[in-house]
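<amino_acid_chain>
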Amino acid sequence: MSALLDELIELRHELHQYPEVSQQEEQTAQRILRWLNTCSPTQIIKNLGGHGLAAIFDSGKEGPSVLVRCELDALPIFEIGEPQWRSKHDGVGHLCGHDGHMSILAGLARKFSEYRPKQGRVILLFQPAEEDGAGARAVIADPKFSEIKPDYSFALHNLPGMALHEVGIKSGPLNFASEGLRIELSGKTSHASHPEDGISPAKAIATLIEKLPYLPQSLGKDESEALVTVVHANLGVNAFGVAPGDGMVMATLRSIDNALQSDLMAHAEELARQEANRNGLKIKLSHGEKFSDCTNDREAADIIRKSAKKAGRKITELTKPYRWSEDFGLFGSVSKSALFVLGSGENCPQLHNPDYDFPDELIESGMALFENIARDLCG
């Protein structure tokens, strides 16, 4: 096991050095493909939902199809940490731990190459474009996904702030749905000495910045159910002599489930339209980075609990969902699915921080948990 672990750590460091953002993971996929080719899976599906890969280990006997998923993509964030394996791509970094998640599944591929499942199939999915919310949707919509048809789907995410190797799990809602809303407002530019000759979006933008965060309260919801965060705003041009005619506000909306998310988005759009009409402005609304809610199936969550107990890991029963999003939730529409969190240390830098680095100790731990899950279902 130690020799394999050394190989996996080396792979993780290589992946960390050459990160690629969502939908551009071509070289990352090639590195993973070279590893998978040494593991002799029954089948490898390439270019799944973009640059995705699926390695299938088929017993040839009746039984469940069990999918384990990780992510290929990195973040458009400049890494400031100084590990020897620091990113060689300035402005891009594996600052969420997807390099570690890939290494865990690479280890599983080696394990299942040596000891095939006794029934059913194990499918190792290296999914593209998780960070922008497009990957799971693209994978499931790909006609090649019909060759997979999982009965169960599982995933993990490492979690700073939780003790190393500790497993966090809950049945039901685990991650919020989220979606970005971009509000573009246009009026009429004028000379700054004659602002009355123009139509400025300044008042509308100020009102939206003030009112958008309070939309959940207007629906009778608190932060445990819904959240609106203004993330960016822009007004006019950088010139003292010009009264602005254009502006923009961006906000991220988050909700505990998809139904509430749709309601929250409708109210945000209506507020934007009202402010545009009140101020004589034209308006353009657009959306981005849409994530479904992630809700754990009770049976699948119990399988994770059983695996963690077998591995001797401390199990924490989570009492409320996380407000961050995970596009893994969409796999719940095609299978019994569950995601768990794996502690990456109480003093580990937070996810998406520029100094984050995945703890190599978690590779072996994640492998054991997923292997227990797969062996429980497929032998």
Remarks:
- The chain has two domains: 2-173+293-378, 177-291.
